[in-house]
Design goal:
Number of domains: 2
CATH superfamily of the largest domain: 5'-nuclease
Strand order of the largest sheet: 1-2-3
Shape: elongated
Number of helices: 7
CATH class of the largest domain: Alpha Beta
Radius of gyration: 16 Å
Number of strands: 5
CATH topology of the largest domain: Rossmann fold
């Protein structure tokens, strides 16, 4: 199994460097791949901020990636929940932090936007400090 870095995912998803894209695609075609959730977090930031892709496009790409039979994503249930919340308007990083904390009772933050965008009844409950 090969774990991949953000740079590999960005090449695979954007195709912006022909040689690196070809090598990334070849790796994904012949190997079992592990994607740490931290790589997804950084990849989402790069695609949104540097490539100016809409969150909906990034979520769609991540859903396709998670559907590949040879790809294992760290904490897939949390990532899947975060993608759903992101589709509903929540920031991906906030959604992933919250979804990854589901074994907690409360999620403390100073971020009013996170509190506002968290779905009602979310576990853990978002609490403004």
């Amino acid at each position: 199994m090969h774990a991949v870095d953000t740079s590999v995912l960005v090449r695979l998803l954007t195709g912006d460097d022909a040689d690196q894209t070809k090598r990334a695609a070849a790796l994904f075609k012949k190997e079992a791949i592990f994607v740490p959730k931290t790589v997804l977090l950084e990849t989402e930031w790069v695609l949104r901020r540097l490539y100016r892709l809409a969150p909906k496009v990034v979520v769609g790409a991540f859903r396709k990636l998670s559907g590949l039979g040879n790809v294992e994503i760290e904490q897939l249930p949390a990532v899947t929940q975060a993608l759903q919340w992101c589709e509903n308007g929540m920031d991906f990083a906030d959604a992933l932090h919250l979804a990854s904390s589901r074994n907690s009772n409360k999620f403390a933050t100073f971020d009013g936007q996170l509190k506002k965008s968290a779905p009602a009844g979310t576990k853990p409950a978002v609490r403004l400090l």
